[in-house]
């Protein structure tokens, strides 16, 4: 083994190789979490859009019913 500055280069190579693998595993985990959260947000947004449309439809229906009642009262 070659000594560089008092350190065994093979030991350093193994140490930092292990560190790199650990960081790559952590990176992969973080990316999976990110992808899962993005999918959740997209799902919530899609549900929210659906609920928003449903609420708009309900309000439109109520508005039309009120307009019809107003027209009836005006005619009477």
From TrEMBL:
The keyword Cytoplasm applies. Residues 20-47 form a coiled coil. The lineage of its organism: Eukaryota, Viridiplantae, Streptophyta, Embryophyta, Tracheophyta. It is found in: Cytoplasm. Its main location: cytoplasm. GO terms for cellular component: cytoplasm; microtubule associated complex. This is Uncharacterized protein. InterPro entries: Kinesin-like_fam. Keywords: ATP-binding, Coiled coil, Cytoplasm, Nucleotide-binding. One of its GO terms (molecular function) is microtubule motor activity. One of its GO terms (biological process) is spindle elongation.
């Amino acid at each position: 083994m070659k000594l560089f500055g008092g350190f065994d280069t093979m030991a350093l190579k193994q140490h930092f190789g292990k560190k790199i693998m650990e960081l790559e595993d952590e990176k992969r985990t973080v990316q999976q979490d990110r992808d899962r959260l993005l999918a959740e947000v997209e799902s919530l947004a899609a549900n929210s859009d659906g609920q928003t449309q449903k609420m708009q439809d309900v309000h439109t229906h109520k508005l039309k019913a009120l307009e019809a009642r107003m027209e009836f009262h005006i005619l009477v």
